[in-house]
Amino acid sequence: MAVLSDKELAASVRRELLEDILPFWRRRTLDKQRGGFIGRMSNGLRVRPDAPKGLILNARILWTFSAACCYTQNDEDAALAQRAYEYLTQYFLDRHHGGFFWELDPNGAVLDDKKKIYGQAFCIYALAEYYRVFNEPVALLQALDVFDLIEAHAVDRRHGGYLEVLSRDWRPCKDMRLSDKDMNEKKSMNNHLHILEAYTGLLGASPELRHADRLRDLINIFQRHILNAEQTHFQHFFDEAWTPRSDSYTFGHDIEGSWLLCEAAAELGDKRLLRQVRTLATKMARRVLAEGVDADGGLFYEGRDGRIINPNKEWWPQAEAVVGFYNAWQLTGDRAFRRAAARCWQFIMDRVVDHKHGEWFWCIRPDGTPDRSQPKVSPWKCPYHNSRCCLEIIRRTQTEPNATVHE
Questions:
Q1: pTM recorded for the entire structure
Q2: How many whole angstroms separate alpha carbon 71 and alpha carbon 208?
Q3: Whether pLDDT at 399 is above 80
């Protein structure tokens, strides 16, 4: 199969963003009765009006339309970014204890008042982007407030890193799970990955020494604790002292983390650290390419000891694989990475995009068919991974491969 050229890849990505992803979220997801955005929609576009509204969905919508507006310069995208910002700060913001609630009912009343640090990180990420695009100083102040709260209450002063979940008033909780699928451990890769992502965005918006110091520390945590001994996969769950409590890895997080670590080091502007991280990212991308890519170009979900233990292909790892492999090609010039990125994008176009109802299916099963029982919109099914993939590839196809790693 012929591999898409950069011009063809950029055109396909741009078309998917502008003619499918953004129009779907503009037209289909507004809650016109209660404000903000709907909480849940089936794959067949049936809205559940009684569904709760989750912090992750709403923060990611804010990031998406802020970042999209920067590219499209579309008034509708600007209006939806403002709508998302106003709903987030009117209903999710805890005006008494600070930070943002985890879950609301359809009318905006609080259902779950916990301060899950993963969710706080996404608020920083979204608010920093909103500030960057619209020059709204209050949004930056709100992002800085959340940063201060995380640093004051969620940092493990003895062992380093960040705890998973705190109470409304920022006290430790017994149940540290982000969701029912997660282990009840005090620390996780996923939490730290998205704090890293958030602090990278915050440093870009507010280049203060304290933000740089904490971001540098996060990169060090990944190098010392989260990567396995071979520095090829992320470990998932840890106790307080960073003893691993799980033994599998997810290819989507590995390839996503490979390029997010590069972005973090680049934002710090430390050339020595950037060379280290780029070498590490290349090593991780090679292992994902060797172990996690199916013959059809799609990315499997989960592995253990070199074996695939979950052969499903969820939507978000595919998006991250396109960016991560393209990033690895830019770092090395190795055409195998460029081919992997283009083949994964073609898999997305052929199998993951829902050409009937719009947007992307949640999951493609091992037989190549979509799991239509999974929602199109939910607390976890958001426009952030796929829209960010498109925006990243549009940006990256305008530049030449970067050989800095070989300096």
A1: 0.96
A2: 26
A3: no
